[in-house]
Amino acid sequence: MKIGTLFGIDIYINKIFMGMVVATIIAGDRHMVATIFLVVFIHELAHIIAARICGLEVLEIELYPFGGTIKIGSLLELNPTHEIIISLAGPFINIMISLLCVAIEICMPQITYDNFIRANLLLACFNMLPALPLDGGRAVRAILSRQIGLKRATNIMINGGIVLAIFLIISGIYGVCKGIFNMTIFFIAVFLIYSAIKEKKTSAYNVLRDITYKKDKLLKQGAMEIRHIVVFHDIPLVEIIKQFVPYRYHYIDVVDYQMNVKGSISEGDVVDGIMEFGMDMTVGQLISR
User: Fold this and answer.
1) Are residue 198 and residue 81 in the same domain, yes or no?
2) Beta strands in 134-270 (DSSP E)
3) What is the pLDDT of residues 21-48, one digit of tens each?
């Protein structure tokens, strides 16, 4: 749901966040709602500032209970260095604000003051966990993508998010059995599962955007380091793009099971084949065409 526009950036609030807000208001803690919203907004504002510093255009932000996502209108979003900087900017500003509040002892009602510091620290620590869609997961994915490719790195971090969600659900159920019901734990778990599914659906699209970005960069720079890989002729194209890594242009040597070379294709040929024939086409079929 869109709630407004700030500096030309559309601001949306996720349904899960809305549900948490309503549940918290019903529980009679309106001050906590205001605190969470403010802390999450500051967190996302730090991401926006970092993106702007990196020269990227931010189109919109979507607020979740424990962070959010920003939509960037440039293919540079998949630059690993930029992704690390933008991802860590949110937790960094939350920690800095907490330390600043403690240092200058801002004059606020004690319960609001304590909740504000606690919310900033919890949001920062939680988002540093190495699991998508959290900031720590995005930073680790950017690092891993240099070695194992964007798609594989994304899948690893998505699995981390699902494992974390399962752990939280088990912890929440255990708490209920002990007579302690913590609604926040279940909201976090739902948020992680929902976001992991969303990341999974867009991972292949992100890989293709990364490849498109490399084409643009090659055209601008005029040169790029080559990376050769060898595949068997019956391997689907979708499996090949999993081996692609950022900042390398790939050439693929295709061989049969007697290791006879059937031909060679470029990264661009693979992308064109996916767009025209689909991801399930084998590289051998693509060469024959």
Assistant:
1) yes
2) 226-232, 249-255, 261-266
3) 666 666 666 666 677 778 888 888 888 8
Q: What is the CATH number of the domain that holds 242?
A: 3.10.580.10
Please give the tally of structural domains in the chain: 2
Q: Tell me which residue of 186, 24, 190, 46 sits closest to 115, measured CA to CA.
A: 24
The mean predicted confidence, pLDDT, of the chain is: 78
C-alpha–C-alpha distance, residues 241 and 267, integer Å:
8
pTM score of the predicted model: 0.67
Rg, C-alpha atoms of the chain: 22
Tokens of 256: 């049969």
Q: What is the pLDDT of residue 92?
A: 93
Sign of the torsion angle spanned by Cα atoms 213, 219, 225, 230: positive
Is residue 214's pLDDT more than 50?
Answer: yes
Do 250 and 213 fall within a single domain?
Answer: no
Looking at the structure, do residues 14 and 32 belong to the same domain, yes or no? yes
Phi, psi (degrees; rounded to nearest 5) at 264: -135, 145
